[in-house]
Amino acid sequence: MTIAIYAASVALGTLCIVLFLVAVRRLLGRQEEIVATMLRRYDDRLAEFAQTLNDGLNRPQPTMALPVEEATRAIPEHGVMRLLELAKERMSADAAVAVVSAPSKEPMLATVGLSQAEVAQVGRMGVPDYRGARALQVAFNGEAATPPGSTPIRSGLAVPLLDAEDGQGMLAVLTRAPDRRFSEMDITTLEDVVSGTRPALEASLELREADPVPELDPLTELYDRRAFHALLDRELGRARGRREPLALIMLDIDRLTTINARVGHLAADDILVQIAALLRDVAGRDDLPCRIGGGRFGALLPRGDTREAERLFERLQATLRERPFPEVGVVTISAGATELLPSDDAAALLGRADAALGLAKVSGRDTVVAAARREAH
After folding, report:
1. Which residues contact residue 342 at a Cβ distance below 8 angstroms, ignoring those fewer than 6 apart?
2. What is the dihedral of CA 75, 78, 81, 86, to 10 degrees?
């Protein structure tokens, strides 16, 4: 009798535990269903909110007139860069960009106030589809490397740059301020800058000639070899047209093969990345540092001469001496500097810089050799 009672108690207890577990499981399942429903509703509301924002950005707005005489007078023959400077100033912005895409041509990209990584980010964005809107506000994720001492680009305001029959174009002003909001007045101001200067822009050589969007080297985020040659051709043409100087410096890391053998390719790549960052830091605002390949770099100095190229090398050399690498100690670099001469084409200018670099290597490395310095007038 006692055993039967005990067995019945155990069975009853087991049944209670099973029923409790079933109830808990049903409760958890119900909570999961509630959470899933809430998440679906949240996603639906988020999608609806995003669509509302998109519709609002693309809705045409009434036009407000502002005088354009001042903008028209401010644009001389070199239209594109002057336009960017004017737009940046009139809008109290941190940077400006113009993108033009015409049929059967590579896109033209011109910027002021942006780092190389930011230029590439904007170039990949291309010309937006306005769908009849007067302007678009653009948000950025802030991931692109910024100029020294600057915060990331946060947002921008873009308006059409050209008439539809002339190709697609965009003029945008960009801000690094996290809380900047563009107003109706801002849109009108930017439209006036464009409308007052469009005739000069369409006649500008800079706008009519294709200017390829430069690509970045994936390891160092400097301009790559292809971009270097495109930029060399472009800057040489600009220097000729404007009768301005142009300097070129070629740099090469000393004993890179030995460094690779000593620390391995991954660690050597990290050294390359750090040296590229230092080169970017010591370069001037308008300078164009590039990675040619391996441990070789080049930098174009618009409106610069050989002395300025030598000073760039000296800044990089001093920084490298102050910052030895844990794996290999102080890394040195050799360089050849030159400047544009009246008879030069791109091949002659580059060949002279490479020859000067070769002399620096055979002269003991860790030095710069200057070639073909112009006589001062």
Report:
1. none
2. -10
Is residue 277 within 8 A of residue 116, CB to CB? The reply is no
Integer Cα distance of 61 and 57 in angstroms: 10
- As assigned by CATH, the class of the 225-370 domain is alpha beta
Question: Is 69-208 a domain of CATH 3.30.450.40?
Answer: yes
Would you say 83 and 75 are in contact if contact means Cβ atoms under 8 Å apart?
yes
Whether residue 337 contacts residue 247, with contact meaning beta carbons closer than 8 Å, is answered with: yes
**pLDDT by residue (tens digit) across 204-220?**
534 444 445 568 899 99
- Starting at the edge strand that comes first in sequence, how are the strands of the sheet with 296-302 ordered? 288-293, 296-302, 246-253, 333-339, 368-370
Contact 209, 164 (CB under 8 A): no
Query: In the structure, how many helices (H) and strands (E) does the chain have?
Result: 11, 10
Residue 354 has pLDDT above 80, yes or no: yes
Rounded Cα distance, 356 and 373, in Å? 12
CA dihedral (330, 331, 334, 338) in degrees, to 10, reads -90
119-175: pLDDT as tens digits: 877 777 767 776 667 888 888 877 766 766 778 888 999 988 766 554 567 889 999
Q: What pLDDT does 29 receive?
A: 57
Amino acid in the structure at residue 228: F
Residue 120 CA, distance from chain mean position: 4
Of the ranges 62-71, 111-120, 137-146, the best mean pLDDT one: 111-120
